[in-house]
Please model this.
Amino acid sequence: MPQKKAKVGRPRMPKGTTKGRIVPVCFTPEDLRNLNKAAKADKQGLSEWIRKTLRGQKMETWIKVRKDGKQVTFSYRETGRDQAAMTAKVEGDVFSQLREEGGLVLPLSHKDVEDKFPDSN
Model:
């Protein structure tokens, strides 16, 4: 009777003990160099540094209805001490993105973010 071949690789972990799903992400070579430098400076692995950085960012999303009845979906994320990234997506795929660096007093209110996109009113 033939013997079973041993499977290659790490044994399966018990259900519920894994960190979660793997999400494939593409970075430009320059972005990847910068990410690796930042992770190394914090004495962390790249995946650990990315998770820590993402968890530390405040992000809000909300919907407002314009006078013409179209919905606008706003998002706001603090990216640094006085930096923020904001987006406005109008129903029908009109999309605006804005990144402001320096001079912002955070956190911004919903009205502050909406005022950055005059076409959203």
Q: What stands out?
A: DSSP finds three helices and four strands in the chain.
